[in-house]
Amino acid sequence: MADQIPLYPVRGAAAVASRKRAAYYSAAGPGAERPGRFQLEDESAHLDEMPLMMSEEGFENDESDYHTLPRARISQRKRGLEWFVCGGWKFLCTSCCDWLINICQRKRELKARTVWLGYPEKCEEKHPRNSIKNQKYNVFTFIPGGFVLAVTIVREAVDEFRRFQRDKEVNSQLYSKLTVRGKVQVKSSDIQVGDLIIVEKNQRIPSDMVFLRTSEKAGSCFIRTDQLDGETDWKLKVAVSCTQRLPALGEDSDPPVHESLSIENTLWASTIVASGTVIGVVIYTGKETRSVMNTSNPKNKVGLLDLELNQLTKALFLALVALSLVMVTLQGFVGPWYRNLFRFLLLFSYIIPISLRVNLDMGKAAYGWMIMRDENIPGTVVRTSTIPEELGRLVYLLTDKTGTLTQNEMIFKRLHLGTVSYGTDTMDEIQSHVMNSYSQMYSQASGNNASSTPPRKAQSSAPKVRKSVSSRVHEAVKAIALCHNVTPVYEARAGVTGETEYAEVDQDFSDENRTYQASSPDEVALVQWTESVGLTLVNRDLTSMQLRTPGGQILTYCVLQMFPFTSESKRMGVIVRDESTAEITFYMKGADVAMSTIVQYNDWLEEECGNMAREGLRTLVVAKRALTEEQYQDFESRYSQAKLSVHDRTLKVAAVVESLEREMELLCLTGVEDQLQADVRPTLEMLRNAGIKIWMLTGDKLETATCIAKSSHLVSRTQDIHTFRPVTSRGEAHLELNAFRRKHDCALVISGDSLEVCLRYYEHELAELACQCPAVVCCRCSPTQKARIVKLLQQRTGKRTCAIGDGGNDVSMIQAADCGIGIEGKEGKQASLAADFSITQFKHIGRLLMVHGRSSYKRSAALGQFVMHRGLIISTMQAVFSSVFYFASVPLYQGFLMVGYATIYTMFPVFSLVLDQDVKPEMAMLYPELYKDLTKGRSLSFKTFLVWVLISIYQGGILMYGALLLFESEFVHVVAISFTALILTELLMVALTVRTWHWLMVVAEFLSLGCYIASLAFLNEYFGIGRVSFGAFLDVAFITTVTFLWKVSAITVVSCLPLYVLKYLKRKLSPPSYSKLTS
């Protein structure tokens, strides 16, 4: 097949496609040349000064008048020296700065490109390599930061290496390239613009291509876009007709080609070929592909707790400098005071908690391990181990709909004919109606019409009402079976090899081997339902459809015209001709808002649509109109003429189609349910009770999104819903925002287009109003819009955001959020791989936040403050020691003791705080209201930090002064005495901090105590005053005396007992909220 295609440079068609593509990207892509923010502010500065609440008259003037004002002012400015002195220099500086900014931030201009088919080397432009890069760092940005940060560096390096391996696997995939010399194997990363690439069935499309040819006889193929837009249904793509026909024209022919390309002729990167083998010419590669341009670059995420600890560390650094200056000042600046200043800075350097980073990183690794080991949320993976505490600080949860809240599995639930309604329990009645209709039709030798004639000639013994209902049921089922864009697909038999141009005899056409593919799962559900009641779609191509009746007869219908569903029309239609009777019928189905004006008058449609919507069903209205041959021929001529027009083609085509959409016969109303994932309702209820505001961002239709918001209880049944009307200008946005401001405590539903307009002119006002809503639903959102909404919430509220999704279209949102969660499901692993946390079901998010989020935040807060306390207390003792000895800059403890203090003597008990928990997991899940306290950040704040500073100063002072007072006669032992009391105090303080004991905590306490006692006995040379070379050794016999023991015990008790008493009184007088539940 591939060898028969002649290779010629084609310019015209590709250039047209490029222009369209460039226009498409410039309108929607991240690199779009939209009006800059500063430009809008400059040109409409006076508009922003107007109050938001104003009358409609304010917008009667033409907006262009406003835009001319700044230019007029600029032109009136005087030139020359007077102008320069009076402020012209400011203007020049501003212009220069703007020019530099434009140069630095200039984005590549997208323009039409000429593509040489099969001759990429002839391309004059330089194009990016066709390789995928998801790595966050390069060699120059990944620079090691020292030994203390080794743990962090190793973890980041491992994460980065895994990302590199995943990218390498994708970039190394082999594809067949067509050249003059025949087929050549080429890596995905080596594909260039202009290459002719062969993509086999179930292979990933490596770049954006124009679809030239397929092995499928119909000239079309299906692609799976689940990795691109999150939809599991297959999309139909059509090959360019002139290249599809090439073999029939002969190799030497060179026909003139005048064919415009449409979006149907494109194959996008990261989609999968689902049927046949395709050949395409590469148009866009690498970072210019649609999928990459719709994905934002990943950022390095830093947790809120880390930022808070950084602030406290800065405060400690200022305290270190201040304390050193105070000591030098009290010395009187004698001698080389600056040398003493540096000595004091070194002596008090333990105020800066250097080991804090290592402790926290090890703690984060422990939290990740606990999350992945939790049997209640199996399959959960922690991909970013730096932010587990973020799970406990979330205020906004932004969720996708399809595949995240729902299973993306549609089930037919209701058929309503106006006078009679059928539910799941009465489907057998419909089946008997359909069976009777067709059996009567074929029992008549004359071979009557297949629509409503046979039921009317039914046996006279049957009641008249039954005949009427039977005929209406039959018509409704036939309309549903014909009005769709579903294609039945049959898999090839096992053992069929070679190219996929196999004969039909190699396929198995049995019911078990048939699957349905369509652009919407709703349509598949409808066709599967018609099969269940006896009318089966067995075959379909671009021009015909075949149905099988309950009796096994095949009905063939010729597809004359197809009118696909669009978000503007909200309906789809098909004109078919029955081959047996030559009758032409126009069938149409769509949303009730669009169909209510098209169908004949009735008194039940609006009411029943409302009833079904309240049940959470997605409704479709089905109607038909019989056409004569003359009516159709007239329509076809007008329709063809409209399609060929150069100007206003879309409007003219729509006008011709609308001429048919009049006084259509209403057949039925269908109700389909998109099944929610398991336990979505209780999970959303739990999150709402936890104080988390939930926003649903979806690319789906407004009606569907509203429907799911109600059925999932995202919006409670009693709550009002304000649907934001479509707006296109600043004036409309202003009035609509005013209307929304008057509403109170209602959920907001807004479309992506309206959102874009509001964000351009009234970003602050929209954010303020939307953040007050209990729930927000954004429909028809693009991936970049989702990410922009996340950033808007972060900037305007300063609160922590979490994004959860399951498709490639959610990756931008997941990466932009403070915490990204991916669901690994039907729509592939792209979201799961890009996320910080990967789960298998939406319901797992409840335990992830309520239990693990709480534990991680509480533990890290306690751990961080305790490490700071550990450094502060020993620095306080050093300050007291220096003060007593006339502010001498002499170290109190030897270097080994200082190292041992932060490691072997206290490390295990302090780190064991990562096992602590204030509330049992069951209690945290039962009372999600406890989560509200975490978002206030009370576990780690300047208030709690100051409390720990005061505790450190008190304990350090008591320990040092106690040692000096009680051991005045044996002054040489002051190091051993004070250090022993310090270690005991730290171990007791850990015990004081712990809320729930774990056996490992007890082991850590006794292990550290044992290590210290052993070092007292065997490393006694380090416990003397001054340097080891002076011979000041500790007398081992002294530490075994009763005097030593009781005096050390007394100092320790005085330093710790008041804190135990205060803790007891606080728990009695002002207990925390969780203690009331556990008591």
UniProtKB/TrEMBL annotation:
P-type ATPase A domain segment(s): 183-290
Highest taxon, organism lineage: Eukaryota
UniProt region (Disordered), positions on chain: 443-468
P-type ATPase C-terminal domain mapped to chain residues: 833-1071
Tagged with keyword Amino-acid biosynthesis: no
Record membrane topology: Multi-pass membrane protein
Listed EC numbers: 7.6.2.1
Record carries keyword Translocase: yes
Keywords: ATP-binding, Golgi apparatus, Lipid transport, Magnesium, Membrane, Metal-binding, Nucleotide-binding, Translocase, Transmembrane, Transmembrane helix, Transport
Composition bias type Polar residues, residue spans: 443-462
Compartmental location: Golgi apparatus, trans-Golgi network membrane; Membrane
Primary localization: Golgi
Positions of transmembrane segments: 267-286, 315-335, 341-360, 867-889, 895-915, 945-965, 971-992, 999-1018, 1038-1062
Chemical reaction(s) catalysed: ATP + H2O + phospholipidSide 1 = ADP + phosphate + phospholipidSide 2
Principal EC category: translocase
Cofactor(s) needed by this chain: Mg(2+)
Family: Belongs to the cation transport ATPase (P-type) (TC 3.A.3) family. Type IV subfamily.
Name of the featured protein: Phospholipid-transporting ATPase
Protein source organism: Equus przewalskii
Gene: ATP9B
